[in-house]
Amino acid sequence: MKNDDRRGSSIDRRNLLQAGLAAAFAAPLGAWGAQAFVPQAPVSGIDFSEFPLCRTASDAPALTGAPRKLKLSWNAGAVCLAPVPVAIEHGFFQKQNLDVELINYSGSTDQLLEAIATGKSDAGLGMALRWLKPLEQGFDVKIAAGTHGGCMRVLTRADSGVNKLADLKGKIVAVGDLAGPDKNFFSIQLAKLGIDPTKDVDWRAYPGNLLDVAVQKGEVQAFLSSDPLGYLWLKDSQYKEVASNLDGEYRDKSCCILGLRGSLVRDEPQVARALTQALLDAAMFTAQNPSVTAKSFQPYAPKTATLADIEGMVRYHTHHHHPTGEVLKRELKAYADDLKSVQVFKQSTDTAKFAERIYVDVFSV
């Protein structure tokens, strides 16, 4: 397994927190279940003068009046979204005068984007390579920020003979979803190596929690997985990592994104900016305080994951990288170009115009 040093972050991990954590959150309640979060006062010991820390930080004053209520959709089991409970537990939403209700969503991406576009939710977090194709259809959702990199891995048995991505040529590879972002991502990488991901690799769909069983039975030679399962499987010495989306040029690109309701951006730009700022500040706090973040996320992690495991995942994911503005637009265009290369996007799609249409710079308003 590759170690956490690959993140390459030079961030100074200041210890901003001296006090204990607030009470653990209630467990997720299902696809559209609102979770029983009671916003806490910010934990003592956080010096909010340290925030905003990101380059795009707005100098605009905080919202006034009663806290603005918002609904934010997320996948509560995705450890890469650990900044979300951090934002609740450590007061980053509260600092922006926001009262955020978390919606644990596990339906299809089209349904999620429709829910955001129609106001059932005000914002959502998801993977760029899962969202971009549906956004090509014209949902009224604007991408305000990338949130981090490092969600996807290619795994195989230690003795499989598969040592690099190019070795997947002629192999059978198990995936949880034939249209999933991990399959799209590694198909793109194979194409860049001159390997036809459609003709030269046999992709087979399996339930996500049985991917390792498929390789154990010899039905496949490798499988794709996301954290936390991928990280936990790698604790077993019979598995090894062949590739991840922190390899090469993608080391400094975000894989997950924040989408906002289009009407929120147009009608309440200060609210859109405040929500984005709170999540970016929470992401930076996460990068600087992985052990604190691990404790915040622990209620959502698999029971087999220790605090050390969660912290390892938090360190592995690039929470210090959360592009906005022109940098975000360039990343979205690059992903759209990548998706054209594997025939997910139509060849006629103008990717520059597409990126311009779907992104918003909330800090320029």
UniProtKB/TrEMBL annotation:
It comes from the Bacteria. Pfam families: NMT1. InterPro entries: SsuA/THI5 (IPR015168), TAT_signal (IPR006311). Residues 82-291 form the SsuA/THI5-like domain. PANTHER family: ABC TRANSPORTER SUBSTRATE-BINDING PROTEIN (PTHR30024:SF21), ALIPHATIC SULFONATES-BINDING PROTEIN-RELATED (PTHR30024). This is ABC transporter substrate-binding protein.
